[in-house]
Write a structure and sequence with these properties.
The structure is a homotetramer. The first copy, chain A, is an alpha/beta fold. In chain A, 41% of the residues lie in helices and 17% in strands. The first copy, chain A, has 11 helices and 10 strands. A 4-stranded mixed sheet of chain A has the order 3-4-9-10, with helices on both faces. Chain A has a 4-stranded parallel sheet with strand order 6-7-5-8, sandwiched between helices. In chain A, helix 7 links the parallel strand 6 and strand 7. In chain A, 58% of the residues are buried.
């Protein structure tokens, strides 16, 4: 997020624009909380997690009156273009605002869930999976010492991308994701197969949104049927922080530069996304129309390589 | 643990002894699973989490017959002295074994809970609190962006040492620990005070063994009475892994060296501990007699400095 | 590297093959040091840096006699296909071996320099830039406290990819790379510009292979012309270790699976690479024919965004 | 540093004082750059490396006129007590100021070199050795893959504490420190012994202030006499940054609280130090009188355990 803001600001200034930051997202936009940004103002932020401008889940912005107020703030400040950075909710908000404000609007996809349609990946996703992976590596360290089953709950309410990538990279035996319900009987058979093959400990990744209700609930159902202790970790908001990875910062910078260029080219109501390592423009209504489908190939690779 | 084994092995060889490792703790001792160790065998392990020899929570060793078998293994291999490394259970086991085996027995206190009597700190404790702290730092990164209360459950069934140290070092507003029950009404008043002072987000550390039943249960009870979202993280076994910190490795090395020296000096049924930065010998029956009391001063410091 | 080996082994077994590992690279191949691998043999290695099989920079393999011996080892063991994992030297070796052995040969590009033609990225590159970035973030922490210029030397003898990516992601003011010689006078003017704009401290990334001879030499030449202290860090082999990132593990796994599939499809003397997020087969002679050109766009982005 | 400032501020407010921060150390004191601090002002800083107030190596403060101006700033602001946080230079400055200002002065020892007399450890030291250790662990990852000698230069101009602790915790074969000159011939004999014992790679820690002139110079002299490649890493300012460890934050907090209490008890010209895990007051003239001697026991332990 900070890397996005830095890139938009500096590239905007470089291209001769005046640049303003909006504090606390759409809430700040509604109350007109704009602050002029210089190149120095966005110095020494690229390595910081979170966002120095603040953010919000604005209820007011979901009302026509709220968006009306936001449009007025932009007009009052004589703003020509707006770059927003966020997930599906942010993109949907941008699309709605476009009906009430005539300036150019560009969205940069930022979400730790990688659940946005029209882009291969999102700002922050690489950071989130590496954070989750570090946690799993730590669990593995002790995993071999004693016979145990570890359930690790990762983020992902409607989307199992994190769970799948983390399971693959972390050597988990299985991943439970919202998109592909897994019969617990089938999971128990898999655990037995690994155990018979001499494996002492196993890690299972659980997306928070999978059908059984999360890692604690899965543990409660599995425990009576396995001879080994089941231990649960719930990562929660750990995954949202930490210094961004190189890939997240570079992506944020590329998309931030592209967003400014797109605005100056007259584009509006589009998202700057990444497809096959190329920056592309995606109409915002496509980005928010549907959720990204789970990667079937990933599930299959995990099946063959687990452990 | 690995640093302990390395120090005992190398210092033992240095002092002219033959050194054997026991695989999988007391279980391995019962079945005589001993392996001769050279200086090279314990090379390149000091940085590894977990233990390369394996460990166990041996049920059999808790029976006289089990300990009888262990004593026989030691006699058969003509072992003169035994160094064990572990927590209260390990120390109690060592004390029980001393009744059935006449060799020297020295214990090195290793526990992520820092709950062993007679030593200021334990091997692995510094690593565990730093791991928990990293997780909390990540949560703080996003904490300021939105108004939220975060509950972070750390290890500590009967002992709140981790929770207290982590709360102090992590800038939490409170710590719920087994030794000092906290009225949830008092906690709610504290949250309100901070909120009125303009604080947007707050972190509360919950030891797994505190009286309400852990972080999820505390969240369930607090949520109806606060206007902000409560989010839960359960660290679980993350705290047991990871590369050991410098302090943990240096402590393990000092105590490993001291354990070998103590054996050669004819000591037995003692634990090598650290008191005021000096290595001391503590009778094993004192080490296991009582639990370490919680640090009252710590609780008070947290009260005054929170955030 | 370990993730590659794991994926090749498990996917090979999954597709019905027998799989052998070669210890210590081409040297081990020459002396026929092959070891049969099971699924369990490659368990618990995906998170480890380095390579559990060992590697070598074999001088003997560069001679026809050496490769003759390697070919004989493969024939004696009745091997049908070989998957090698490494950089330009490894790929060139594989190509030379193909003249003396008739089995299928597939190369997986692994190099921290990202200097291999025909693939967007290499196994290990993402890990290396994140490791370098962590070091730079640490330097930034103190950078603002005092007025200083920091030179950080990163790997890259003939290729500035690491330096460019790290400079961009780390907010450096400049990167000195082998492909684009920088006049030190121009660099001094840039430093003066930033200083006049109120910037207290600056980080410059120096690829080890840039024309002046590395960071210490650049510091020696710059120091007389700047009023602030210049401090030097040389990362060296730090960049080669550490737990691999999620992206490195996932790439290694994808390419390992693809290498096995390519062998079974009858391909030979090809490298499995990544182009625009798709796995592709590249003739080995193309991969080794030329070095990857520096990314001109990257240099430009750094110019506009520095700090 | 930030944890110190936070503790002094909050405990000072808790005890009924008004608290001011001085920007950029003694330079700021000279120009009277004081800022009133509230509990909220020092929120969310405990996890940050560096110091949010800034620091300086003030030349002016070394002159009587400079200290005169500083004393005047304190009088003008009606300050009764001053808490300074830093190394030997800071302590000496505090002692000199005491001759020109009558208020209470307490020093908190903060130095990554652990070179201050009268305290077992200093704020920041634990962080510095863990940072160096992480770097060495990364080098070890690849160390075993190929036969190599690695020289790692760590901080320590006049004091080898970091080098010794890091060598012990990192499994290095030797440490070159300012206090105990090592004959390079003796070092070569040690390397040969290890090599004959089958060891493939070796790490040697070099304190920047050792007699030969640092790691590059040592490498230049050793290389002609060894058959294996020597690689050099110079950590430099990496060791000064990074999020502080738990031990550093807890120590800073304890000493910060103690400093405020000491001021209120009427103490002056003392340093709050740690001796055997107890906070103690040490006259400033003792703290600056001599350098901490190297730990002879440490050197001996390293000799017996290397690798």
């Amino acid at each position: 997020m900070n890397a996005c803001m830095r890139a938009v600001t500096r590239h905007g200034l470089h291209r001769g624009l005046q640049v303003f930051g909006v504090r606390e997202g759409y809430d700040g936009l509604i109350r007109g909380d704009l602050v002029r940004l210089s190149a120095r103002d966005v110095g020494n932020v690229i390595q910081r997690g979170g966002t120095v401008l603040g953010s919000s889940r604005s209820r007011e912005f979901r009302t026509p009156a709220g968006r009306e107020a936001a449009a007025r703030s932009l007009q009052d400040a004589a703003i020509d273009g707006l770059v927003v950075c966020g997930g599906n909710g942010t993109c949907a908000g941008a699309l709605a605002l476009a009906e009430q404000w005539s300036g150019g609007i560009i969205a940069i996809p930022a979400s730790i869930d990688n659940d946005i349609n029209g882009t291969d990946t999102t700002v922050g996703y690489d950071t989130a999976i590496n954070t989750a992976l570090e946690a799993i590596d730590r669990i593995r360290d002790t995993a071999e010492a004693q016979e145990r089953i570890f359930l690790v709950e990762v983020m992902g309410r409607g989307c199992g991308a994190i769970a799948l990538d983390v399971a693959l990279a972390g050597g988990a035996v299985a991943a439970l994701v919202p998109e592909a319900p897994v019969d617990l009987d089938a999971l128990l058979r898999l655990l037995t197969t690994w155990r018979d093959a001499g494996r002492r400990s196993m890690i299972i990744i659980v997306a928070e949104g999978e059908e059984h209700g999360g890692a604690f609930e899965v543990a409660r159902r599995l425990q009576p049927h396995v001879p080994t202790d089941i231990r649960v970790t719930v990562l929660g908001h750990i995954q949202r922080g930490g210094a961004p990875t190189a890939a997240s910062r570079i992506l944020a910078t590329r998309l931030g530069v592209a967003a400014v260029d797109a605005l100056l080219d007259g584009a509006t109501s589009v998202m700057v996304g990444l497809k096959g390592n190329q920056v592309t423009l995606v109409p915002l209504h496509e980005a928010v129309a549907a959720q990204r489908p789970a990667d079937a190939a990933m599930l299959q690779i995990i099946g063959g390589l687990a452990g």
